[in-house]
Design a protein that fits this description.
This is Aspartate/glutamate racemase family protein. Helices cover 46% and strands 17% of the residues. By secondary structure, the chain is an alpha/beta fold. It has two domains: 108 residues, Rossmann fold, CATH 3.40.50.12500; 105 residues, Rossmann fold, CATH 3.40.50. A four-stranded parallel beta sheet has the order 2-1-3-4, with helices on both faces.
Length: 224
């Protein structure tokens, strides 16, 4: 049994529950997922200040994560807040959803875009694409119209707004794959998946698969 802990860097328990539920549906065998929600910060991460606070919240969970029997940890916000420092602290593999989502989108040399609701994180997303080695394939970030907080409160409107931004990414960015940029957007990403003519990468399932692979490689032979 592979035991993963999914850390939600925002304070929304509903988002944690939704991401865990989607993670459990990835089809990975012998997998358990526990969700942990940030103890402080914002209910939705919309700018770099909130992302910095989310990193502090993630790192504040490190003692708890060290005590939790698990084989891997997922940081489930698209800026991967606290990821590198958490890797230095924990003895198990740590995976970010931006890291995994971009890796999946870029597979085979595909040109990819990120679609998200948060204009305040455009710079963070561009830096992440470069940091993870995908700058040459990155077609840019395409945004939904409307206030991110209001969109999150209206699931139908959110799906429609994301679909319009995805079509813009295909039309204007020549994207061959699209990453939906945000852990709390996971339910909307799942609803969109069958509707587009290019690969749509759901970052939470991508991170689950990435983490399961890493934990399998990290486990000693004979580990149960």
């Amino acid at each position: 049994m592979t035991r993963l802990v999914l850390v939600n860097p925002n304070t929304s328990q509903a988002s944690t529950d939704a991401m865990v539920a989607i993670g459990r549906q990835t089809g990975e065998r012998d997998l358990s997922i526990e969700g942990v929600t940030a103890p402080f910060g914002a209910p939705l991460i919309t700018d770099e200040d909130a992302l910095d606070e989310a990193a502090r919240a993630v790192l504040s969970l490190a003692p708890r994560l060290r005590r939790t029997p698990c084989d891997g940890v997922i940081v489930a916000a698209f800026g991967d807040p606290g990821l590198s420092r958490l890797r230095d602290i924990l003895d198990v593999p740590v995976t970010g959803i931006a890291e995994a989502g971009m890796a999946a989108a870029a597979a085979g040399g595909r040109r990819f875009a990120v679609v998200t609701t948060t204009p305040g994180l455009i710079g963070v997303i561009e830096k992440a694409a470069s940091r993870y080695g995908h700058a040459a394939l990155f077609a840019g970030t395409f945004l939904t119209e409307g206030d991110p907080v209001a969109l999150m409160a209206e699931p139908y409107a959110l799906v429609n707004a994301l679909e319009a931004a995805c079509k813009a990414a295909i039309r204007q960015g020549d994207a061959q794959a699209i990453v939906i940029g945000g852990g709390p957007l996971a339910p909307a990403a799942r609803a969109l998946a069958p509707t587009l003519g290019v690969a749509l990468i759901e970052p939470v399932p991508a991170a689950i698969r990435f983490a399961a692979l890493r934990t399998a490689k990290a486990q000693p032979q004979g580990h149960a």
